[in-house]
Amino acid sequence: INLENDSLIFDSGLFINDLGMMFYVPDEIFEYYKKAYKIKNRKDLQQQTIKTPLFKGCSWESLDYSLIKTIYTCNIMDTLIETPAGKFNCFAISTQSAEAVLKGAYKDFTLLTNYKSCYAQGVGKVAEFTTTYMTNEKLGISFLQMTSEVYLQEVWWDEE
């Protein structure tokens, strides 16, 4: 990957260019993925969490952190999020994980996880909301298993 015209966060695989925000896979991790998942080249490992141009309703397919194909959708372009670090005007990207089929006592259930990540321009991710459901199509039931909210705690620079 040519990072000549991209910005890179120190000690992170995150980079941003004209295509959006993606994660770079280091050589040692790529070598592991190559063997474990029979992946031939880096383009097959693209993890694009934000695609530009970004507008409400746009969606794209990419890999999530677990290398599961995921649909990302921009569902909000401007919302105010309050965090311990302050208030931010954000856009939001929603995803739903691929279904995980469970075993054991929950063998007839499927686990679905929805994420909503809120980003502020110039800051990055300021909040993430996660909701996990258990569903059983045979019985026609679905129930909430877990929710979580994570917020930016501090800003690491002087805002003056």
Topology readout:
Layout (H helix, E strand, L loop, with lengths): L6 E2 L5 E4 L2 E4 L3 H11 L9 E5 L7 E5 L5 E15 L2 E11 L3 E2 L8 E11 L3 E13 L4 E11 L9
Antiparallel strand pairs: 1-2, 2-3, 3-4, 5-6, 6-7, 7-9, 8-9, 9-10, 10-11
Q: In one word, what is the shape?
A: globular
Can you write the helix and strand succession as a string?
Answer: EEEHEEEEEEEE
Please give the count of helices: 1
- Structural class from helices and strands? mainly beta
Q: What's the main sheet like?
A: 7 strands, antiparallel
The end-to-end distance, rounded to whole angstroms, is: 35 Å
How helical, in percent, are the residues?
A: under 10%
Low-confidence stretches: 7-11
DSSP, total strands: 11
Mean pLDDT, all residues: 81
Strand content: over 45%
Question: Over the alpha carbons, how many angstroms does the gyration radius reach?
Answer: 18 Å
Descriptive overview:
The model is unreliable at 7-11 (pLDDT under 50). The strands form two sheets. Strands 5, 6, 7, 8, 9, 10 and 11 form a seven-stranded antiparallel beta sheet that branches. The chain has one helix at residues 27-37, and strands at residues 7-8, 14-17, 20-23, 47-51, 59-63, 69-83, 86-96, 100-101, 110-120, 124-136, 141-151. With 160 residues, the protein is mainly β. The protein is built from one helix and eleven strands.
